[in-house]
Amino acid sequence: MKVYVFGARSGGVGKTTVSFNTLVATQLIAPPPPGLLDVFLECDFGRQSAVHLWNPHFLEEREASPDSYPTLREYLAGVAEPWEIAYSTSHPAYRNLVMIPSAPLCSSDRELLKSYSEYSGKMLKLLEFLKPRCRLLVIDAPGAGGLSGLADYLLLIPLGSFIPVVQPDKPSIDEASQLVDIATLAGSAVPAAVINKYRGGKWAVSYAKAALAAGETQILTIRDDKKAREAYEAGVPVVLYSPSSRASKDIKLLAQTLASSAPAHTIQQAEKRARILSKVIEALARRRAPQLQLPDIESILRELDKLIGHEGGSDTQAQD
Ligand SMILES: Nc1ncnc2c1ncn2[C@@H]1O[C@H](COP(=O)(O)OP(=O)(O)OP(=O)(O)O)[C@@H](O)[C@H]1O
Ligand SMILES: [Mg+2]
C-alpha cells in the first residue's frame, strides 16, 4: 500500500482537486489489481469538497440522514468501525474506489492536541485495517476550510509520504516549506511537490525547488485551467470532465510520477514517526503547563531536531 498525504496550510490552493484527481488519474492508468481497492481518506474536517467531487448525491443523502452515514469523525470518536466509514460507489468510471468522508472534528487545535495520542493511534489502526485491502491511499489534508492548524498536520504527516500543494506565490510556498521540514525531520518522504494553478514563468519553480525539495523531491506543475474550475462546479473530477484539458494532462503526469516513485513506508515506520511527533507535543506541553498551548512551527522544529538525534531520521527505503 502506498500512502500519500496531500497538504498545505494555505486555503484554496487546490489540495482536494489535486489529490482526488490524482487518485482517479491513477485508476485511469491502471485499475487496482483484483481484490484491492484505492481509498481516498478525506481529512478536511472543515469542507467536504472531495465527497462533492466523488458523488455530489452522497452529501445530499447524508444531510437528510446524518446518522446513517458515519464518517472519520465517528471512527475517531470510537462509535464507528473502519468498514462502516468506507463508502463505495457504482459510478462506472471508478474502479474499486472507496471514499472515507470526514465531518467537523474538533472545535479547536488545542482540543485536537489533547487527544493527539488517541487519534494518532486510531489513524494507525485504520492504516493497519486498510493495508491488506488497499493499493493506494490518498489523504486530503485540511487548509483554511479546516482548523487550518498545525495540529491536523502533526496527526496526518506521519501516516505516509507528504506531497505539498502550493500556488505560485511566495507565502504559499513558504508555508508549505515549514510542513516539508516537519515531514522530513519526522522521517516522511517528500516524493513530489506540486505547484498548482501554474501560469508559466521560472521563478516559482526555482523558488519551490529551493524551498520544498527534500532529497528525491520532484517539482511538478499543474496549469491554471478554467476546465478545472468548471469541473469542480459540476462536482466531477477534471480528469473525467475534460480528459484532454491542460490540468488533466498535468495531473496524469503527477499520477504517473507517483506510480513509478519509490515504494511507500511500512506501518511500523508510520508508528515511529507518530511516536516522534507525540513526544514533541508532550515536550512542548510540559514546558507550557498548565494549559496545553498551541505549538508554533519553530518550537516544533527545534524539538524535532533534538529528538531525531536520539531516534534516527529518515527511513524511506523499506517497502510496504
Ligand atoms: N489547476 C487549477 N486551475 C484552475 N482552478 C483550479 C485548479 N485547481 C483547483 N482550482 C480551483 O480552486 C478552487 C479551490 O480548489 P480546492 O477546493 O481543490 O482547494 P483546497 O486547497 O482543497 O481548498 P481548502 O483549503 O478549502 O481545502 C476550486 O474552485 C477549484 O476548482
Ligand atoms: Mg480541500
Could you please describe the fold and organization of this structure?
- With 320 residues, the protein is α/β, with parallel strands linked by helices.
- The chain has helices spanning 15-29, 49-54, 56-64, 72-76, 109-114, 116-130, 150-156, 170-186, 203-212, 226-234, 238-241, 246-259, 267-287, 297-311; strands spanning 2-7, 37-42, 87-88, 97-100, 134-140, 161-166, 192-198, 218-223.
- The chain has 14 helices and eight strands.
- An eight-stranded mixed sheet has the order 3-4-2-5-1-6-7-8, sandwiched between helices.
- Adenosine-5'-triphosphate (ATP) binds at residues 11-17, 44, 47, 49, 142-145, 196-197, 222, 224-225, 228-229, 232, 247.
Number of strands: 8
**Given the structure, what is the number of helices?**
14
What is the overall silhouette? globular
Secondary-structure content class: alpha/beta
Q: Kindly, what is the distance between the CA atoms of the first and last residues, rounded to a whole number of angstroms?
A: 6 Å
What is the fold-level CATH name, i.e. the topology?
Rossmann fold
Structural domains: how many: 1
Low-confidence stretches: 313-320
Strand order of the largest sheet: 3-4-2-5-1-6-7-8
CATH architecture: 3-Layer(aba) Sandwich
The CATH superfamily is known as P-loop containing nucleotide triphosphate hydrolases
Biggest β-sheet: count, sense, barrel? Answer: 8 strands, mixed
Bound molecules: adenosine-5'-triphosphate, magnesium ion
Helix fraction, binned, reads 40-55%
Portion in strands: 5-15%
Order of helices and strands: EHEHHHEEHHEHEHEHEHHHHH
CATH top level assignment: Alpha Beta
Mean pLDDT figure? 87
